[in-house]
Amino acid sequence: MELWAFIESDRMKNLVLREFYSERDVVMEERRLRTDNSPFGTLIEQLNAVTFVAHPYRWPTIGWQSDIQHITKAETSEYFKRYYAPNNSVIVMTGDFEPVNAIKLVEKYFGDIPSQPAPPKVRTVEPEQKGERRIEIEFDSNPYIAISYHVPAIGHPDLYALDVLSSLLSEGRTARLYKSLIEGKRIAVMAHASSGIGKYPDTFTFIGAPRAPHTIAEVESAFYAEVEKLKNIPPTDWELQKIKNQLEADFIRDLNSASGLASEIGHFEVLSDWSYINTFMDKLAQVTAEDVMHVTKKYLTKNNRTVAILKKKEDEDKINNKKDNNVEKPTVTY
Question: Which CATH number fits domain 2-110: 3.30.830.10, 3.40.50.300, 3.40.50.460, 3.65.10.10?
């Protein structure tokens, strides 16, 4: 433990940016790999940029390519100094140790690192969406669709029902999206739903990919059909209990090791409050079928959604051929 405290405190107070420019090139290549040259990465980046018109969640974490290209060594050092400071950090220790000795170690190695001005607070609140937004992205890839709906931030009581809703739709091969779109209608090779839990209001997102020769439009319509079912017919008791059992099992597995426990405590302390993990299962157990219907009706509406479609760019020759075929040919009478 003392070695950890020595290494981490030294990293916090004695930053050394070795080979800065070559490392900057590595980050640029990482962006090209995961976003610019990835159909899925491009789709999600564009989806977020349109879903959020004001809040910083519209910006990619890695930054835009031009941001990475032009950041300087001095700017990076200043950023590190301000954000990687004791007053902006959370230390989590789990396992077999004496708390008193651990606190002394932290004070010994981190106590002389000066605090920095608090990072600026995010004051921008995403305005209410007033209507559906749609975007098309051309990419040399098989087609994908992503649909996002605004949902509240961590701490809101509706998040537990939204968590159940996302699992009901896409957790495993007995989930509704799999049974309907992939196994039943066989119109999709991927159909997934997830509910984001963020420090600020986040999104509930559907992602799908059609099975050839089926289309994006068919997958999109099938997503909406499943949503409408849940607005009018509550999930069965069996479905609800199955989902709760799955979520509880996943939650417990995440806490099954010292590193997993530390990760979950740190994650929720940064977002809001580490004690979230103490109430999660109790709150989850209280979710009813009516709660699931309520959040579906409240958040999964047309006015609250953004649709992003990624499709293959049509070849210019094909486009011209289509235009030629649509032109009426003159008739000649002999």
Answer: 3.30.830.10
**Count of H helices and E strands in the chain?**
14, 5
> Using one digit for the tens of pLDDT, what is the confidence trace for 205-226?
999 999 999 999 999 999 999 9
Query: Which residue, chain included where needed, has tokens 């975007």?
Result: 135
The answer, as to whether pTM is greater than 0.85, is yes
Q: Report the half-sphere exposure of 248 (CA within 13 A, side-chain side).
A: 14
CATH 3.30.830.10-classified regions of the chain: 2-110, 133-314
Q: Which residues of the chain have pLDDT under 70?
A: 315-334
**pLDDT for position 313:** 83
Extract the tokens encoding 15: 């930053």
Alpha helices in the chain (DSSP H): 2-13, 20-31, 39-51, 65-70, 73-83, 99-110, 158-170, 176-177, 216-232, 237-254, 258-271, 276-285, 289-299, 316-326
How confident is the model at residue 321, as a pLDDT?
63
Cα separation, 15 vs 30, in Å, equals 23
Give me the pLDDT at residue 315, please: 56
For the four alpha carbons of 197, 202, 204 and 208, in that order, the dihedral sign comes to negative
Q: Directed axis angle between helix 289-299 and helix 216-232, to 10°?
A: 130
CATH value of 133-314 in 3.40.1080.10, 3.40.50.300, 3.20.20.60, 3.30.830.10: 3.30.830.10
